[in-house]
UniProtKB/TrEMBL annotation, chain A:
<feature type="transmembrane region" description="Helical">
    <location>
        <begin position="148"/>
        <end position="175"/>
    </location>
</feature>
<keyword id="KW-1133">Transmembrane helix</keyword>
<feature type="transmembrane region" description="Helical">
    <location>
        <begin position="26"/>
        <end position="48"/>
    </location>
</feature>
<feature type="transmembrane region" description="Helical">
    <location>
        <begin position="120"/>
        <end position="141"/>
    </location>
</feature>
<feature type="transmembrane region" description="Helical">
    <location>
        <begin position="232"/>
        <end position="251"/>
    </location>
</feature>
<keyword id="KW-0472">Membrane</keyword>
<dbReference type="Pfam" id="PF06182">
    <property type="entry name" value="ABC2_membrane_6"/>
</dbReference>
<feature type="transmembrane region" description="Helical">
    <location>
        <begin position="205"/>
        <end position="225"/>
    </location>
</feature>
<protein>
    <submittedName>
        <fullName>ABC transporter permease</fullName>
    </submittedName>
</protein>
From TrEMBL, chain B:
<feature type="transmembrane region" description="Helical">
    <location>
        <begin position="181"/>
        <end position="199"/>
    </location>
</feature>
<protein>
    <recommendedName>
        <fullName>ABC transporter permease</fullName>
    </recommendedName>
</protein>
<dbReference type="InterPro" id="IPR010390">
    <property type="entry name" value="ABC-2_transporter-like"/>
</dbReference>
<keyword id="KW-0812">Transmembrane</keyword>
<feature type="transmembrane region" description="Helical">
    <location>
        <begin position="52"/>
        <end position="72"/>
    </location>
</feature>
<keyword id="KW-1133">Transmembrane helix</keyword>
<dbReference type="Pfam" id="PF06182">
    <property type="entry name" value="ABC2_membrane_6"/>
</dbReference>
<feature type="transmembrane region" description="Helical">
    <location>
        <begin position="111"/>
        <end position="128"/>
    </location>
</feature>
<feature type="transmembrane region" description="Helical">
    <location>
        <begin position="20"/>
        <end position="40"/>
    </location>
</feature>
Length: 263, 262
């Protein structure tokens, strides 16, 4: 464990140096992600200029849901974004074979290979959204609530990681599963809005099959207690852990299948 | 024998990668349709119109805008790639105008996209989502012309963004930035008439509304009559201006290459 922390630190330090080297690019990355997120919030704002509520949810409540998803996703985007590149940067050019003979966990190596600068834009915008929404909600904030919020956000991030890891793993059999990862990742757009607006089938799907519901709506429902999901929301951290365990097990299977073909 | 099997297998795997992209695109588009559908259903649950737009017109607008957005842009990516890997220097020596070559490739890609991506989406949308058709053949014709002009404006703009690869390393970031600008100002997400006044004014001075908002408004009947022809005039103005800009910036960029080349 200590060895891995030290290793990660070494990796991170060199990324930071590169980022500072290309300062304009760093800023472009941060700005672009912020503007991207801002565009979709702006869309909701424009709609709310003309209406009072959607399905019983006010603007700031929807903003709160969005904020949790955005912040959670930043954890994934900053630290685990390299999973996207598993197929075309590691398996296709044969780089993964080199990683396999090193005395380091290959998943750790892939993940630590890059810190993604653009994720910082995501983090900043997520915190801004939460900071805007929370004071407008009629909630009491004590230490327990803040702790809970942090747990929920970390869980949200871990679910993003687990889902991406799971589908990236398919690359071991099909060289590059990027299209699948991308399509599944787009599902997370559903999570921007209260799940209650969707058809029951979609709701079930986003809760039990590809659990993006736990990245935003359920955590938010724990604090905004009007959908009857407050109790259920407590399963969020459990869902996060289960997802990670499943995804990691699947990764190990894929790795074994990959190594045994010897290609 | 084994060798050839490996080659064949590699080829097959490559092809599955491409068709996987195709299916991923379709699946994502269907999902976006679903989100749009349920979102607007919920919005209209408590009212019949927003700014005189009813649910049917709104859904029609949003879906057509979404389909059109798939065509806006395209050459920028290829150009940026060519610049990054130095291919551009070789391309420039070839006996054709590189700009036209890029546009030709792009047209091919867009025709494929029309057949593979758009038509299935249109079918799904019309089967499941009660959309409205334009009122008259004249409107249809105006829409087609307006959409084509809009696509070209988008293509020229995309080209200008692609040229930035000469100066920046983070091409991905620039592309996201471009996408956001278009999504934001083009009226791709929501009709511009719903914007606050000050923002609408800004939008009218930018080329983005000519890419999506104007054609889609003609289609869905938000703009009609003389206004529609005026919209077309605005589009033509942007089309010509951006083309001139493309030519000017490209000739500047080529000088840049010559300097690199020594």
């Amino acid at each position: 464990m200590r060895r891995y922390t030290r290793l990660y630190w070494e990796f991170a330090k060199s990324h930071m140096k590169v980022m500072m080297e290309y300062r304009i690019d760093f800023l472009i990355g941060v700005a672009s992600v912020m503007l991207e997120q801002f565009a979709s919030i702006f869309f909701v704002k424009v709609v709310f200029d003309h209406i009072e509520q959607i399905n019983g949810w006010s603007f700031y409540e929807i903003l709160f849901i969005y904020g949790i998803a955005a912040t959670g996703r930043s954890i994934h985007q900053i630290f685990f974004d390299n999973l996207w590149t598993l197929g075309w940067q590691y398996i296709r050019p044969g780089k993964l074979d080199r990683l396999l003979i090193r005395p380091v966990n290959p998943l750790f190596h892939v993940v630590a290979d890059r810190l993604h600068q653009d994720g910082f834009g995501q983090l900043i915008i997520g915190l801004i959204i939460l900071g805007t929404a929370i004071p407008q909600l009629d909630l009491v904030w004590g230490a327990a609530e803040i702790a809970m919020l942090i747990i929920m956000i970390i869980s949200s991030g871990l679910i993003f990681v687990a889902i991406n890891l799971f589908f990236a793993t398919f690359s071991f059999w099909m060289i590059d599963s990027l299209p699948i990862v991308w399509a599944v990742f787009n599902l997370s757009d559903f999570a921007r809005y209260p799940l209650t607006i969707y058809h029951k089938g979609i709701r079930m799907f986003l809760t039990w099959i590809i659990p993006y519901g736990f990245t935003a709506f359920f955590p938010a429902a724990y604090f905004i207690d009007k959908s009857g999901y407050k109790e259920f929301a407590l399963w969020t951290p459990v869902a996060a852990i289960v997802c990670c365990v499943l995804a990691y097990a699947f990764w190990n299977r894929g790795l074994k299948a990959f190594a045994s073909t010897g290609s | 024998m084994r060798k050839y099997w490996q080659i064949a297998k590699g080829r097959m795997q490559e092809n599955t990668a491409y068709s996987a992209w195709y299916w991923a695109g379709t699946v994502s588009a269907v999902m976006r349709l679903l989100i749009i559908y349920f979102f607007w259903q919920a919005v209209y649950a408590n009212q019949t119109t927003i700014q005189n737009i009813n649910l049917e017109t709104m859904l029609t607008y949003i879906v057509i805008a979404m389909l059109l957005q798939g065509f806006v842009g395209g050459v920028g990516n290829e150009l940026a790639e060519n610049i990054k890997d130095g291919q551009v220097a070789i391309e420039l020596m070839r006996p054709y105008d590189m700009i036209f070559k890029l546009f030709a490739v792009d047209i091919g890609a867009k025709i494929m996209y029309l057949i593979q991506g758009t038509i299935p989406m249109v079918l799904i949308a019309y089967f499941f989502m009660d959309l409205s058709f334009p009122k008259s053949p004249e409107t249809v014709l105006l829409f087609v012309v307006s959409a084509l002009v809009g696509i070209w404006i988008g293509t020229f703009f995309d080209f200008l963004v692609g040229v930035l690869a000469f100066w920046t390393v983070n091409v991905w970031g620039v592309r996201v930035l471009k996408e956001s600008l278009i999504t934001f100002f083009s009226g791709a997400l929501v009709p511009i008439t719903l914007f606050p006044d000050w923002l609408r004014t800004i939008t009218e001075f930018l080329p983005f509304q000519a890419m999506i908002y104007l054609p889609v408004s003609i289609y869905s009947g938000l703009i009609s009559g003389t206004e529609a022809y005026m919209a077309l005039g605005v589009q033509l103005f942007w089309l010509v201006s951006l083309y001139v800009l493309v030519r000017v910036i490209w000739s500047q960029a080529i000088k840049q290459i010559t300097i690199f080349g020594g």
